Amino acid sequence: MADEVTLLDYWLSPFGMRVKIALAEKEVKYEYSEQNLMNRKSDLLLKMNPVYKKIPVLVHNGKPVCESLIILQYIDAVWKGKAPLLPSDPYERAQSMFWADFIDRKVHDISKKLWTTKGEELEAAKKDFFECLELLERELGEKPYFGGEALGYVDIALLPFSCGFYTYETIGDFSIEAQFPKIRAWVDRCLKKESVAKSLAEPAKVHGFILETRKGLGFD
């Protein structure tokens, strides 16, 4: 009996994009269920994630798995035959989990502040964002991917935020390519992979959405 896999998601969610990349890397076929988060949450979403009531949710043979990093670990454990996401070495595995957690704790919140603030708050967010990218660039080093020679867990955790780079640069008046060339080169390298390119939202679409949101917040 073939696996039944469904992803409950929203197009703009960086957390959902992570799951899309992982499934593409593993060549897992799945049904995509777009959730309208602007209105009432669907009965299916509430049933599959009654605790947090959030996307993404991976439903595998009727059983839900929630929280994107946990979903990535689940995908890696279930579909072992292709494209391992996490290292087998315990120490390297722990390091990958550390940096993915860093991205969740730091990059996500700071990225949001780059387009939901202005003035001194925006300048403070830029400073924090630069500090994060500096640390991540140092961790990347001369490796092609955070995972070494192949796309891995940390790469997948961070990549979705690159969809907003153009918007962050435009609003914050800075250049990631000029200030963090290794990070920019890493994004471009990853985008050459079909699993990444087809899973990430288009930067122009993200930009348009964020500009409309900023207008609603009275910033522009």
TrEMBL record:
Entry superkingdom: Eukaryota
Gene3D superfamilies: 1.20.1050.10, Glutaredoxin (3.40.30.10)
Compartments where located: Cytoplasm, Cytosol
Top EC class of this enzyme: transferase
Pfam families, alphabetized: GST_C_2 (PF13410), GST_N (PF02798)
UniProt keyword annotations, A-Z: Cytoplasm, Transferase
GO biological process terms on file: glutathione metabolic process
Chief place of localization: cytoplasm
Protein name: Glutathione S-transferase
Species for this entry: Salix brachista
The organism's taxonomic lineage, starting at the top: Eukaryota, Viridiplantae, Streptophyta, Embryophyta, Tracheophyta
